[in-house]
Amino acid sequence: MNRASDEKERRRRFDELCAALRPDLFRFAFWLSRDRAIAEDVVQEALLRAWRAMDELRDMKAARQWLLTIVRREHARLYERKRLQTVDVDDLVAREEVLLAAPDEGELEDLRRALLQLDDNYREPLVLQVLMGYSTDEIAQHMGLNVGAVLTRLFRARQQLRQILSTGAAIAPGSAGLEST
Amino acid sequence: MNCLDYQHRLQTEPQHMTAEMQSHVESCGTCAAWTDELHAFDARLKRALEITVPPARDLPLPRTHLLPSPRFALAASVLGAIALTTVAWLWFPRDTLAAEVVEHVEEEPQSWLSRDPIPQASLDGVLKRSAVSANFAPGSVIYARNCWFRGHLVPHLVVRDASGPVTVLILRAEHVPGKVTLEEDGYNGLILPAKAGSIAVLSRDDMRAEAVAARILEAMPP
Q1: What is the pTM assigned to this prediction?
Q2: Are A153 and A140 in contact (CB under 8 A)?
Q3: Among A136, B8, B44, B87, which residue's Cβ finds the most Cβ atoms within 10 Å?
Q4: What 3-state class would DSSP assign to B184?
Q5: CATH, range A118-172
């Protein structure tokens, strides 16, 4: 096979990967950044980085985890570069109304608003567990935490969500539940 | 197991039911109802997280191979090699592996901020996931995670030294013929052949990197 067809084949494999995994990548980036435009930028940059480094990916079964790790780093990098400011949750909700309340999903709007209010440290492991199906070990590895810390954050995430849903207000991080699990 | 233990554990990992938990829920109506409610909540949570994804933007991917004809490719390769060798000889640019090690460490600035020793079980887990054996002095490692590096999951550690943190990457799949020193972007360090692959050690003081590298190599059994 010559280099031109190698390139074509490489491109085909990459396109397939993007088509299959882009929804996960976008959703993960959105719940990290809580901003659709930033999420799109992060995914775009992450995919370009992945394309350049694709030869490093030897095991296609690990592609999803690999790409989610790149998205996480790209988000952190963007955050460092732009020094994104803290924003008010009401502003976030107003800005992302279209995403939060799709026509046939009105019942989920409150839950999405609550997720936006959730502390960043709790939202990420929850997204990885519930949406990405990660095990606790995989979350620990992805976030550079020990398993005990992940278990604590997951416990607190659900507890804080319920608190927000019942009272409409978030409780301070660290005040909910046990210190360790 | 009592109801509190059961609910605490299930709220942390709703899909993970041990035999002990199963036995409890089968004999406790309150916890059975609570479990149904939790699973229903998680199903709603998953749907809430599955926001609508906007259409993909165009992704202008750069070409990775630019060789229009074999003859041109050969000529370009030879000329390119000569030019690169000349440049290398004149300006001593950084070694690719060394450059990637520095780039990788720069991308994890939080690793330098760790202060407290990580639990032995966490360190063991990181080493095990990368199929590495090493016996570090208790309390000497203050940061440990598995990182993607050149297509492999490698242990990225920060070891506490008397005068500050030193980063260590254990690179089982990277082989170097001998000691490679690196000095750039404020980092000093070296890459050394190990019993399997190599290790990269970075600090802001090359003497410390030498000392730490020697200790790391001693900690790795044959």
Answers
A1: 0.56
A2: no
A3: A136
A4: strand
A5: 1.10.10.10
